[in-house]
Hints:
By secondary structure, the chain is mainly β. 0% of the residues lie in helices and 53% in strands. It has a domain of 126 residues: 7 Propeller (Methylamine Dehydrogenase, Chain H), CATH 2.130.10.10. β6 and β7 form a beta hairpin.
Amino acid sequence: MHVMTMxxxxxxxxxxxxxxxxxxxxxxxxxxxxxxxxxGASTSIAIASFASSAPAAIPSIVTRLHGHPARISSVHWNSxxxxxGVEQDIILSGDAAGNLRLHLNLNNDGxxxxxxxxxxxxxxxxxxxISTPTQTYLFAATSxxxxxxxxxxxxxxxxxxxxxxxxxxxxxxxxxxxxxTLNGSDEGVLVALGGVDLQxxx
Length: 202
């Protein structure tokens, strides 16, 4: 068995203790070797930047995104949203009071705009988004076993529209979402849902 060593360089101080509160690392759009992560920090989203080059430096918080009235429970970063032919960053977040918010970095300049997509009667348990060549889909699972699906257009300013509701029921509360595009399709999306029922729903 091959053993690897790992050096811990940074702990996301103040990161909320929910399993979906930390995004994957996203490469910087400024041509350097840095990466960014987003995480829920109480009722705001913190964005930290860190370099992958040696010697490694401690990441720094470069942006805080506000607007949630309750503790953030889920954060997802999509770096493939295309507007005017240019890939841009969006962050989808949900909180314990059922608020779903979208944060857009329209000019890739570090300046974010945020707006509320929906307010549910139950908390948001997981969020995800995926962009296809023709559409961007936003997913939000709630603590009553429902999955809300929205679309995001590429207009200026971008707007969202409710697409459908996937009612799984309270015995199938979703705690994690994963998405991928179907091979050979410009619009087909496969969604995997996992949660308290110990099952994976496709």
